[in-house]
Amino acid sequence: MNKLKSVRIVLTASLLSLTICSTTVSAATYKVVKNDTLFNISKLFKTSVTSIKKTNNLKSDNINPGQKLKISAKIYTVKAGDTLSKIAKANKITLGALRKANSKWTDSLKAGQKLIIPGVKPGTTVSQKVEAASTMRAASTMKAASDGVIPYTKEEKDLLARLITAEATGQPYNAMVAIGGVVVNRVQSKEWPDTINDVIYDVPGGYYQFTPVKNGYINKPASSIAIKAAGEALRGADPSKGAMFYFDDSSTNKWLWSKTKTAQYGKMVFVK
After folding, report:
1. How far apart are CA 99 and CA 169, in angstroms?
2. Which residue from 144, 240, 229, 154 is spatially nearest to 197, judged by alpha carbons?
3. Which among 20, 171, 230, 239 has most CB atoms closer than 10 A?
4. CA–CA distance from 144 to each of 31, 147, 189, 261 (Å)?
5. Cα distance between residue 74 and residue 63, in whole Å
6. What's the number of CA atoms in the CB half-sphere (13 Å) around residue 20?
7. Could you tell me which residues come within 8 angstroms of residue 10 by beta carbon, excluding any fewer than 6 positions away?
């Protein structure tokens, strides 16, 4: 091991130690927002719908905006100099997940402020979480960088193919690949979550990013051509030309139409 690697390891260990010391272990209270579902909340906090229902004595899956749910998660106390990005990185979660868990859509923070750290269970240190994540990745069907431009599991490829099926059945093949490209572009961007699963199920501010997630069509089986398109996108094909959004050309959303158009295939318009 060379000296540079030794220094990096010491610095990493020091950062982990500081993070552990400044994190208060506790159960959290999550406030339901518009368009929330128990399923999406369970995905955010890496738990199950059954567990949430049991903890909160819920008799059905119905929840309402403003309702408060007890969730097993850590509470972090903000320190001077903290930023949301630093907190998310130190706790190995996405910035999007941190924002969603706290309904925090601005970057302003105050020392002493409490933040929910989603997906980190009470009693779990950061080092334990990193080790657990590494074990899960090793046991999964994660693809190597030589196979894809981003890491992904077999399940995530299927999820991407199901999104393409729901959004672009009947549209040109390039439109299908381009939709996959948009998801890949978001995973690669610092502005969005860093996994396919988190990008597709992202609901910032209570707004679904992909209609099939909201209407349930995401759960329908993927077509063979969509699976092929998903594979091409994961290998780096991007007919969207760097787009971050797409929509049907019948849309009346002025905000989407105001963005820079990069491509159009059939009825699908791609913008960034």
Report:
1. 33
2. 154
3. 230
4. 38, 6, 19, 32
5. 23
6. 14
7. none
Write the single-letter amino acid at 183. V
CA 268 to chain CA centroid, Å, is: 24
Average pLDDT over residues 146-163: 89
Q: Is residue 206 part of a domain?
A: yes
Strand runs (DSSP E) across 89-143, as ranges? 114-117
Are the beta carbons of 231 and 253 closer than 8 angstroms? no
How far is the C-alpha of 190 from the C-alpha of 178, rounded, in Å?
20
Evaluate whether 47 touches 72 at the Cβ level (below 8 Å): yes
Q: Give the domain extent around 250.
A: 154-271
The per-residue pLDDT for 122 is: 62
Q: Residue 263 sits in a domain of what CATH number?
A: 1.10.10.2520
Tell me the one-letter amino acid at 72.
Answer: S
Buried b / exposed e along 146-167 (16+ C-beta atoms within 10 A): eebbbbbbeebbbbbbbbbbbb
- Do 164 and 263 fall into the same domain? yes
74-77 and 268-271 strand pairing: unpaired
Give the tens place of pLDDT for each residue, 64-114: 999 999 998 889 999 998 999 889 888 888 888 899 999 888 888 999 999
Q: For the chain, how many structural domains are there in total?
A: 2
CB 162 within 8 A of CB 218: yes
Point out the domain boundary residue: 129, 146, 172. 129
220 with 159: CB under 8 angstroms? no
Closest to 222 (Cα-Cα) out of 167, 145, 260? 167
